[in-house]
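Input set for joint prediction.
Command: fold jointly, output tokens.
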Amino acid sequence: PDWKIEDENGQLRLVRTYEFSNFKKALAFTQKIGDKAEEEGHHPSLLTEWGKVTVIWWTHAINGLHENDFIMAAKTDQIAGD
Amino acid sequence: PDWKIEDENGQLRLVRTYEFSNFKKALAFTQKIGDKAEEEGHHPSLLTEWGKVTVIWWTHAINGLHENDFIMAAKTDQIAGD
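tokens >
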């Protein structure tokens, strides 16, 4: 429910922001999601800020959303312990 | 020369994008800059994407740029090997 579909100049993306109590925890989450992305061969954009990380999934090849993006969003939630 | 000052709703920020040959190298750079930020007690926003990382420095307390942001920008360049 916390994922939103955003339209970036006609390109649809799945976006969710996770909150943390400091920068270090946010950075550790970015690393975990990045490692998972490498493992799966599908890469998000990750905005790391003090106390939060915004994860953005979309599929370059189709310039929009594919089933795999929703699967990766669910895996991101699993890693977040959500 | 590659740092730009951007105005985000009246808040000035120092912004630079570094390019890499893949996602993994971009993520490793994000981790290095994040570790340095923890060490220095001054935290940027880091946007990690496939093949690039955008680093954004500014000072929350003054809602703008402080000398320390320029020092951190120079340290970011050193870590990037620039």
